[in-house]
Automatic annotation (TrEMBL):
GO molecular function: L-phosphoserine phosphatase activity; magnesium ion binding
Pfam families: Hydrolase
Pathway(s) of this molecule: Amino-acid biosynthesis; L-serine biosynthesis; L-serine from 3-phospho-D-glycerate: step 3/3
Protein name per Swiss-Prot or TrEMBL: phosphoserine phosphatase
Keywords on record: Amino-acid biosynthesis, Hydrolase, Magnesium, Metal-binding, Serine biosynthesis
């Protein structure tokens, strides 16, 4: 899923918001130059990683109205246990933060960006509109992104390392499918032992002087319905019989459709998005629920 050499660049422009939590990404950077008209985009260079396992208090159930999906049915448990591939969202799922919000805060913007993130995850605006709008608020330069990656190690959700280790030990393939950026996700994948080819995410693009130009619109995750398309692409290419998607947002829920994920598990240990949680096959607040169910 490397970005293509002749990428269409999506320039951006717009307003601002602040976030408090610290996103973490890694001290691993990989620079990738694009021959198309002097564009440059960063990927990842292997360096020693120091993940931080965040201490997060699970969200409490509020006015969901229907709490029956907190206790999975036998059918749902059977689907989970028979899954041959598990796809994880990254922000507010594998990691406790929203990467773009944290990068914006690091760059001196934050509040308005996080507001756009909330809209995108709640499904009230098209994802591509929210992505372009958020980036336009702070237009991160190459040097600023590199500095961010050096100073902010990934903050992993409690239990995610154990869950991924158990899945891999059971010969279950693991994928990361995110509306975030490869620059921030590659280090997380390295920590969890997930191969780069199992990452589906967006890519920032820069000019020869390191100035921000936009994002690669050719990535399926750059638009609404992109996660569903990525899951369908994985399934078609690998011929999996059963797949599951785990995440917290509306874009993750979209992945559960014909030819895509058979099962959507809503992880609400960081963010409880009620509209999404209510439609999930299984609502969890700790990854231990999934770990224990595999025994």
């Amino acid at each position: 899923m490397e970005a293509i050499t002749t990428s269409r660049v999506v320039p951006v422009q717009l307003p601002c918001r602040k976030l408090s939590s610290l996103f973490a990404n890694s001290s691993c950077i990989e620079l990738r130059r694009y021959p198309c008209r002097g564009l440059v985009s960063i990927m990842n260079h292997p360096k020693l990683l120091r993940p931080v396992t965040a201490s997060v208090q699970p969200q409490e159930l509020s006015a969901l109205g229907n709490e029956s999906n907190v206790v999975p049915s036998k059918e749902i448990l059977d689907l989970w246990r028979s899954a041959e591939a598990i796809c994880f969202d990254v922000d507010s799922t594998v990691c406790v933060d929203e990467g773009i919000d944290e990068l914006a805060e690091f760059c001196g913007a934050g509040k308005a960006v996080a507001e756009w993130t909330a809209r995108a995850m709640g499904g009230s605006v098209p994802f591509e509109e929210a992505l372009a709008a958020r980036l336009s608020l702070f237009k991160p330069s190459l040097s600023k992104v590199e500095e961010y990656l050096e100073k902010r190690p990934p903050r992993l959700s409690p239990g995610i390392e154990e869950l991924v280790k158990k899945l891999r030990a059971n010969n279950i393939d693991v994928y990361l499918i995110s509306g975030g950026f490869r620059q921030m996700i590659n280090p997380v994948a390295s920590i969890l032992g997930i191969p780069r080819e199992n990452i589906f995410a967006n890519n920032l693009l820069f000019g020869n002087s390191g100035e921000f130009l936009g994002f690669d619109e050719n990535e399926p995750t750059s638009r609404s319905g992109g996660k569903a398309k990525a899951v369908q692409q994985i399934r078609k290419g690998r011929l999996y019989k059963t797949m599951a998607m785990i995440g917290d947002g509306a874009t993750d829920l979209e992945a559960r459709k014909p030819g895509g994920a058979d099962l959507f598990i809503c992880y609400a240990g960081v963010q409880l998005r009620e509209a999404v949680a209510a439609k999930a096959d299984w609502l969890i607040f700790k990854f231990e629920s999934l770990i224990n169910s595999l025994d």
